[in-house]
Amino acid sequence: MLADKAFPRIARQLNYTREFIAPHIARVFIPSLPYEAFNKCRVEPWNMLALFESCRAFTFWPMPHASNPDEAWLDSNVLYRDNSFFIVGTTLKVDPEFNKFESPKFPLFVDSKLEYVGTSSKGIAYSLFHQKRTRPYLVCEIQDVLVNTKTRKPVPYPDWWKAKYANLCKGKQAIPILSTVRPIERGLVTNYVKVTIRDTDTYNHTNWTSYVRFCFDALYENVFESRYNRPLTPLITGGLKHLSASFKKESLAGDILAVESWENPEAEDNVEFEIKKNDELCCHVTMSFFNVKDRESKL
Questions:
Q1: What average pLDDT does range 164-180 have in this prediction?
Q2: What torsion do the CA atoms of 156, 87, 9, 11 make, to the nearest 10 degrees?
Q3: Is the pLDDT assigned to residue 216 strictly greater than 70?
Q4: What is the 3-state secondary structure (H, E, C) of the chain?
């Protein structure tokens, strides 16, 4: 979840184009989604998040083949000289049209907008559009913290940076990171996963999008094995509606993680997850789904 100079090298391989519309707004044009992003004609949620991660890499660094080739959005390349960004939270909202096979998936563009600036944190809202739609397919908010690469501790944004950007998003709030009460006995289901190299970033730390995939893998297995208190097949059939995640601790390639999940008694379309390493919390994820029963009852 940190970033280093491998990310811009990867971003240079992308057939994207970009525009810096305003100091706090960037737009990235995406020709199409990759083949592997789809499963049963639907884009998997972790691939939705990976798309926004690719846009971060494409805008946070100078790109020789892009517009403004020597510039980086939000002066991120200057901040990267001694620091990195650690993603601490994200939310993802999915328009039901995006889950439909018939909905066009290209050409696309992503609008990125700085929404929040704190002492050492910032929040960016990413919106995915089809070029013929006025309503976004996806809206993803990502909150990160500026971390010194040597001390690995949060550091405040420089005064010059805050003077340049903070007033552009005055009044905006940080992403609310919510969690629910864990069940004491019945209803808690535990799965285990070993972190592999394909799950990690350039530091061999587990990529933030991989935690979401771990949750979905556990969810699918538990639904098919009927491990929850009630059948949840209508939820996973209906597709993801909303996701929120907070990231606490890092994990590495080779680590064994416990993925604990349970139904939210206060919201029947929600499933909660906690991923732990040696009983220490790595992340908390909440997912809500379009219930296919509800959709059928409205037809």
A1: 78
A2: -120
A3: yes
A4: CCCCCHHHHHHCCCCCEEEEEECCEEEEEECCCCHHHEECCEECHHHHHHHHHHHHHHHHCCCCCCCCCCCCHHHHHHHCCCEEEEEEEEEEEECHHHHCCCCCCCCEEEEEEEEEECCCEEEEEEEEEECCCCCCCEEEEEEEEEEECCCCCECCCCHHHHHHHHHHHCCCCCCCCCCCCCCCCCCCEEEEEECCHHHECCCCEECHHHHHHHHHHHHHHHHHCCCCCCCCHHHHHHCEEEEEEEECCCCECCCEEEEEEEECCCCCCEEEEEEEECCEEEEEEEEEECCHHHHHHCC
Q: Which of 214, 262, 186, 195 is nearest to 45 (CA)?
A: 214
CA distance 3 to 57: 9
Task: Report the predicted TM-score, pTM, of the whole model to 2 decimal places.
Answer: 0.93
Domains present along the chain, CATH in parentheses: 6-169 (3.10.129.10), 189-297 (3.10.129.10)
Token code pair at residue 190? 């535990």
Amino acid at 136: P
98: left (phi over 0), alpha (psi -120 to 50) or beta: alpha
Could you tell me the pLDDT band of residue 298, with boundaries at 50, 70 and 90? very low
Give 111-141 pLDDT, tens digit per residue: 999 999 999 999 999 999 999 999 999 999 9
